[in-house]
Design a protein that fits this description.
The protein is α/β, with parallel strands linked by helices. Helix content is 30%, strand content 24%. Strands 8-7-6-3-2-1-21-22 form an eight-stranded mixed β-sheet. It has a seven-stranded mixed β-sheet with strand order 9-10-11-12-13-19-20. Strand 9 and strand 10 form a beta hairpin.
């Protein structure tokens, strides 16, 4: 039973107002004795606006503060934006993790592929299973999605039941796994649902998402009619698409060659967990060149134009084992994640330059989303009939449209929030009552750096206006002992009138130094600042950009 002071609260630390980096907190109890569970632990992918950054992770300082009150981490599925931050951040918390068999197996395979990754103990929960963590009675709801074993969570508490949808769609005929569990969701609605915390990704799109079987039929026809080699690129985690390609290839007596480490890793996990039963073994990449052109399908990573992925290297004619030529066919069985469009176009252009035919979802049904469109959202709201709707998993536009749809269904308590908001779901009406620390960490090589640091901002400046370094050797009397040493990086070689930029900077150093009063020449800090200002100003006169300038004064 709930005490009069108990509250049920929700706090997103990622995934609200953005696509990716999903991390949600649910808390129960009064303000001083609140217990928490974490749902998902994802990353987002860095774009061109974050030079040198590999991944974006949630700032979990609040979780570290609350660690003794957190009961565990529950994973809805194995997409990177839902579990990709675990290997980097779990050591700071060392909490129990709960996942279904495929998600647990993929996490283990990922850990084994990364040197030094922590050993994370995972409690495996069967599909549709139910377990208890403190005041939270958690039941898994099978959801159709673009990866095996995607789950919604029914989180029952003494103050009401919450449906955390996770990623989902309604697909009556999925290629693998079971359809979204309509019966369990309707039963929740009949029993009474306090709140739905729901996926908003496709709330701007009318109608329904097509089925994976429709895509499979189109892929089969495109592979059957291809005169020469076929390469298919898709998200490696889309095991249903992998199976569809394999079945289409087998029907044409073609061998499937896996190209890319993540594709190989997920194929292995899918076999271990039974999702590729009946599919003949895939061939290794070293056999590709020995197969006749009309007897091979290459299943490649790189659907998002990633520079180091297989298809990018093939498009640049830089892959050690796989090459394409005129008359071959490449199928992009994927859709661009926002921000990746330029990278993908670059790959497509590289392939077309080689004479390769490129097929995308612009002209053929070769990809469907794993997220619900408006008609599916309408169905979910009708089944569950929540008192409260909180849209998540989307940018502001997606969440606003999801909220408007919920209101149009007669749901009065609809709240849009942002990362770091503490939302009270019960008792009383839904309300933002406080904020908790939230932010971003950047994975920079092997390091995690706070997004507030100057690291990325300085890189942007370097990329925009370059850098000049100046070294001066001075005597104790403030005399130059040698010619200044200058190094210009990222600066045009010549000004508009043909003057050499390096000489312009050099002249600025000499003139500034010689113009300083003798007492100031003996002050290294004064010399450095005067030279820095002069060099930046002189270059800006000729270029209309002020480079970064570092001046090092050595006294001897």
């Amino acid at each position: 039973m709930a005490r009069s002071s108990d509250e049920l609260v929700f706090a997103p630390l990622g995934g609200v107002g953005e696509i990716g980096m999903n991390l949600a907190l649910y808390g129960f109890g009064d303000e001083r004795r609140r217990q928490w569970i974490i749902v998902d632990f994802g990353v987002a992918f860095a774009g061109e606006d974050l030079p040198g950054i590999d991944l974006i992770l949630p700032d979990i300082r609040y979780l570290v503060e609350q660690r003794k009150n957190i009961l565990g981490i529950v994973l809805t599925h194995a997409h990177e934006d839902h579990f990709g931050a675990l290997l980097d951040l779990w050591p700071r918390l060392k909490l129990p993790v709960y996942a279904t068999p495929f998600t647990a197996a993929l996490l283990q395979a990922k850990r084994e592929s990364e040197p030094g990754a922590p050993q994370i103990p995972v409690t495996i929960v069967p599909l549709g299973g139910r377990f208890t963590l403190g005041p939270f009675d958690i039941e898994l709801v099978s959801m159709a999605h673009s990866i095996p074993e995607s789950n919604g969570l029914i989180i029952r508490t003494p103050l009401g039941a919450v449906l955390h949808t996770g990623d989902w769609k309604i697909d009556p005929t999925p290629l693998i796994g079971v359809p979204t569990d309509e019966a369990k969701l309707r039963a929740l609605g009949d029993a009474g649902c306090l709140a739905l915390i729901g996926d908003s990704t496709n709330a701007v799109r009318e109608g329904r998402s097509p089925s994976e079987r429709d895509v499979a039929a189109n892929l089969a026809e495109l592979i059957r009619t291809a005169p020469r080699r076929v390469a298919v690129t898709t998200f490696a985690s889309n095991v249903a698409r992998m199976r569809a390609v394999a079945e289409a290839a087998a029907a044409c007596d073609r061998e499937v060659v896996l190209v890319g480490r993540s594709m190989e890793r997920i194929a292995q996990v899918a076999r271990e967990t039974g999702y590729l039963d009946g599919i003949r073994e895939f061939r290794s990449v070293d056999i590709y060149g020995h197969l006749p052109p009309d007897k091979v399908v290459a299943l490649c990573t790189g659907s998002q134009g990633e520079a180091r992925a297989a298809l990018s290297r093939i498009a640049a004619d830089d892959h050690p084992d796989v090459a394409l030529s005129r008359g071959d066919r490449v199928i992009f069985s994927s859709r661009a994640i926002p921000g990746n469009e330029k990278l993908i176009v670059k790959v497509i252009n590289g392939l077309i330059t080689q004479g390769v035919e490129v097929i995308t979802d612009r002209t053929h049904l070769v990809h469907v989303s794993g997220h619900p469109r408006r008609a599916e959202l309408d169905d979910m709201l009708s089944w569950v009939r929540p008192q409260i709707v909180v849209p998540v998993h989307g940018e502001a536009l997606h969440m606003a449209d999801h909220a408007a749809l919920a209101r149009s269904k007669g749901i009065e308590q609809v709240l849009t929030c942002r990362d770091g908001d503490l939302v009270r779901l019960a008792p009383g009406g839904v309300e933002i009552i406080d904020e908790v620390p939230a932010g971003r960490l950047y994975k920079d090589g092997t390091l995690l750096v706070d997004a507030a640091q100057r690291t990325v901002a300085d890189r942007r400046r370097l990329g925009f206006s370059g850098v000049i370094s100046v070294a001066l050797a001075l005597s104790a009397k403030g005399e130059l002992l040698a010619d200044p040493d200058l190094n210009l990086m990222g600066i045009p070689e010549k000004a508009a009138d043909g003057a050499v930029m390096a000489q312009i900077a050099y002249d600025a150093v000499i003139e500034t130094f010689e113009g300083l009063p003798r007492p100031r020449r003996r002050d290294p800090d004064s010399v450095a600042e005067a030279v820095r200002r002069a060099v930046r100003a002189r270059i800006a006169q000729r270029w209309n950009k002020k480079p970064i300038c570092y001046v090092h004064v050595l006294e001897t």
